[in-house]
Amino acid sequence: MGAYIIRRLLLVIPTLFGIMVINFVLVQFVPGGPIEQVIAQMQGRGDVFETIAGGSGDISLGEQSESSGSSTNSDYIGARGLPPDFIAQLEREFGFDKPPLERFIDMMWNYIRFDFGESYFRSISVVDLVLEKLPVSISLGLWSTLIAYIVSIPLGIRKAVKDGTPFDTWTSGAIIVGYAIPGFLFAILLIVLFAGGSYWRIFPLRGLTSSDFDSLSLGAKVLDYLWHITLPVFAGLIGAFAGLTMLTKNSFLDEIKKQYVMTARAKGLTERRVLYGHVFRNAMLIVISGFPALFISVFFGGSLIIETLFSLDGLGRLGFEAAVARDYPVVFGTLFAFSLMGLVIGIVTDITYMFIDPRIDFGTRR
């Protein structure tokens, strides 16, 4: 097993390098850039895409003195009318005066040392920026994943045992309906019903805590936090809940039909002992294999719309705003860190297999 873990850890290096190379190359072909963002703001447009589309305007000296940003090419349409020395200075400040290969090598050398630099537009280090947004995303991802597993696994087992009964039929119908509802639409429905949209005002609409959170007692802080996080968590939960329930049911149905289950029943073992002593260990392998993907998808993928609707400032909004603004240190820094996290979680999942089913030994595979 030790040799297998070492091999997997060594594979992390080329995999992570490939991810960074592909994304860095793609970025070189994307229109616009940090400098065009700055120029668009200096011209009062506020959007780089309008600058790319064309047009130019006079820029006052006051506007120039207030700007800070970067550029990759002084021939940009948005750069017309700006002094060439000013554009060249921006290029030097943000490293765009270097060729792409040299910039990539410098970036990877810094990332290997976990030096992710500073945001172009926020004057704060990428690490501090991520740590500032992390509590929101952890709250959404962790609670959504835990509740999904706590509810879906027992429900999936019950559906497998009651396969074909009225209980299985109506729960399957409810699950299919829930799976068909997009997360953002369900979030809007929750807001309308329970956050003062049109009916009841039971839960707050904005933020992760109340404005007077610091003055509350410990118990009141916990209740206030749970009060604020309830609707966002349920909004992000619906898709994961449906898929995990059906996955658990089908996995158990497949195991229940195998010969070793019939042999265990023939020996006189109780149904509970058969299910949780024999079937559970084998059936849960496929469920556990989906944990990293489920956690990461809830943690990062579905958080943008939920965070926007509930006015939560988390990693989803951070990534979206960084991509739109071409804030490359934030984009590539978070990409590197979260890709590394995903690869490590995959290794942890394989190790977890061994604790659930001792018959699995990755170290003996050829």
UniProtKB/TrEMBL annotation:
GO annotation, biological process: microcin transport; transmembrane transport
Domain of life of the organism encoding this protein: Bacteria
Membrane-topology descriptor: Multi-pass membrane protein
Gene Ontology CC annotations of this record: plasma membrane
Bilayer-spanning residue ranges: 9-30, 136-157, 169-195, 225-248, 283-310, 330-356
Domain ABC transmembrane type-1: 134-353
Localization per Swiss-Prot or TrEMBL: Cell inner membrane; Cell membrane
UniProt keyword terms in alphabetical order: Cell inner membrane, Cell membrane, Membrane, Transmembrane, Transmembrane helix, Transport
Family, similarity comment: Belongs to the binding-protein-dependent transport system permease family.
Protein name: Microcin C ABC transporter permease YejB
